[in-house]
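Morning run. Coffee first, then this:
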Amino acid sequence: MTTVYDWAFCDKDTGNIEYIMSVNDTSTYSEGGFYNNLLTLPVEHDSDHVKLMDESYFDVDDGAFKTRLKQPTRYYKWSSNKRWDLDTTQLMAEFREERNHKLGICDWTQGPDSPLSDDKKAEWATYRQELRDITKTVTPVFLTRGIIDESKFSWPTKPS
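And here it is:
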């Protein structure tokens, strides 16, 4: 019978478990060693790996795994301060993605073969510029319980 060993690969600064891998020998990894710049630590083979990754981290200062609350939303990252911090980069990237989608679905309004009148084209051009400018004024405070809260900002009004 083959013995299986489970290893947690943790961020060396935050202790966040990036992944867990099962292997048949321990020759590649060592407790407290590094592999691909991740701290390697053995974990119990029969542990719930998903729960371990969701609800624990390795406290580098204390040298032990500790429990934590689950990630509030995908907009949070585990930090070296031993807490979930809002990842505004990820949040704003998704916000820009939504904005770009809104721009994409009205691209046709600005084409030379658009059936719109010049006045309507101008309305759509103004709307599209407002969409482009929204990232200059909106801030990540529009996040409520992990969702983009449209009550805390307003998308520009689409022409009719």
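The chain has three helices and ten strands. Good start to the day.
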